[in-house]
Design a protein that fits this description.
With about 290 residues, the chain is an alpha/beta fold. Helices cover about 40% and strands about 20% of the residues.
Length: about 290
């Protein structure tokens, strides 16, 4: 099965490429720049270029669509760019996938729900995003699922948890804490640190993409998160325990997503998926490999 991965040079895209290749898929990467560490065929292209996307998807059986402005802070600073890439880019994917008769597996996010009205949040929970990042991610998801309903394009959206693993951006909370602690610099928690996240290892998310590619399931969005909730304070304390340094507290950061417990029961029933990497194991591996 031939699979195109958009955003293949990014953190999560690279893990999905590796997971698909390990599972026997014939993978092609599509991004604005290649990742030389991934020995696959690369296509240099921009999601905003409709013709380039059509050429890249020609002859493919499926596309794992991870290409996006995934940096929350960049999306907040440049909402126009987030709209162009995340919304127009996803519309171009729908158009090209229809032309190629290819299935789409879309990387959405649990953040599309916004402020929780009840917990745990299941897929029936209303979506009320309130930031350019999650607004544009939901718009991309909605366009693709509309193509499924209106035109018969098979689409599965994975609303992934906060991902971590090797290759994280330097401005991720994991890298900020680890890099500062390794350098002997103090770690500062924004707020009280009690805000929780269902940190989900990138290898587990990659496995969900493989399962979705191989499944006939379509026309729905699935929460793809680890069951365990970990607070920012727990993350900081685990980092300090590994690399002793001072732990301080600062003012809450505007725009931070509130804590929310998300249910992954439906993806377990539909695809047989469950996060398998214990948080302590994934965090230790990241601490060892960071900055190498």
């Amino acid at each position: 099965m031939k699979v195109l991965v958009t955003g293949a040079a990014g953190f999560l895209g690279g893990h999905v490429v590796s997971g698909l290749a390990d599972d026997g898929f014939e993978v092609t990467g599509f991004d604005t720049k290649p990742n030389p560490g991934l020995p696959i065929h690369w296509i240099d292209g921009d999601l905003r270029d409709r013709n380039a996307v059509r050429r890249a998807l020609a002859g493919q059986d499926a596309v794992c669509h991870l290409g996006a402005i995934g940096d929350v802070y960049l999306a907040g600073e440049k909402p126009w760019l987030a709209a162009e890439v995340n919304v127009v880019g996803s519309a171009n994917i729908a158009d090209a996938a229809l032309a190629a008769d290819a299935k789409v597996v879309y990387a959405s996010t649990w953040e599309v729900y916004g402020e929780p009205q009840y917990q745990p949040i299941d897929e029936d929970h209303p979506c009320r995003p309130d930031h350019p990042y999650n607004i544009t991610k939901l718009a991309g998801e909605s366009l693709l699922l509309a193509a499924d309903k209106l035109h018969g394009l098979p689409v599965t959206a994975l609303r992934v948890g906060t991902a971590y693993g090797s290759g994280l951006r330097p401005n991720s909370v994991f890298r900020i804490f680890i890099d500062r602690a390794k350098a002997g610099e103090p770690i500062t928690i924004q707020g009280d640190g009690l805000q929780g996240r269902q940190f989900t290892h990138a290898s587990d998310i990659a496995r969900a993409f493989s399962l979705a590619c191989g499944s006939e399931l379509h026309g729905l969005a699935l929460n793809t998160v680890s069951e365990r909730m970990v607070s920012i304070k727990e993350l900081a304390e685990a980092t300090v325990a590994r690399y002793p340094t001072e732990l301080t507290f600062g003012d809450p950061r505007p725009g931070d997503v509130p804590s929310a417990r998300v249910s992954a029961e439906q993806i377990g029933r539909s695809l047989g998926w469950k996060a398998a990497t214990p948080f302590e194991v994934g965090l230790e591996a990241l601490m060892v490999t960071a900055n190498k």
